[in-house]
Inverse folding.
């Protein structure tokens, strides 16, 4: 198959009013870099868009972050539900960093699979953070022979 240089795959996550908080959290704790953040109020012409609920004008219309060699995109969407059946996957080189991220991302969130050793990684866990984003953490992958 011929490789296309015009294709880039990004992840877009919808939040229920806490996109700004989530992106700032990921920037601080995961080393991401926010490159764009625009509120609904900043949209030049919103006359053709559905009316937002009261108090949503300062909610995020579009955010963009460089994180782990990819782009994470997001927005606040009224009545957005937490992620299901998809996970942002973090591949970590050390057990210590995997443990740190597990504690950080599972705090005030949900643990779908507790961190433990598996046949494919020294540490593996699946969690949903307090913002509703689901994460798969792979720490110190096992060598394949």
């Amino acid at each position: 198959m011929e490789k296309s240089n015009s294709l880039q795959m990004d992840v877009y996550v919808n939040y229920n009013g806490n996109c700004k908080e989530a992106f700032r959290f990921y920037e601080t704790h995961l080393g991401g870099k926010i490159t764009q953040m625009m509120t609904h109020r900043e949209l030049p012409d919103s006359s053709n868009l559905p009316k937002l609920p009261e108090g949503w004008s300062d909610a995020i219309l579009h955010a963009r972050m460089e994180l782990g060699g990819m782009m994470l995109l997001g927005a606040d969407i009224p009545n957005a539900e937490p992620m299901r059946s998809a996970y942002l996957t973090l591949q970590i080189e050390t057990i210590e960093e995997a443990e740190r991220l597990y504690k950080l991302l599972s705090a005030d969130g949900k643990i779908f699979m507790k961190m433990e050793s598996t046949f494919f990684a020294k540490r593996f866990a699946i969690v949903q953070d307090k913002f509703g984003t689901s994460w798969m953490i792979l720490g110190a992958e096992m060598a394949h022979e």
Residues 82-145 form a domain with the Signal recognition particle alu RNA binding heterodimer, srp9/1 fold (CATH 3.30.720.110). The first strand starts at residue 11 and ends at 15. The chain has a mean pLDDT of 90.
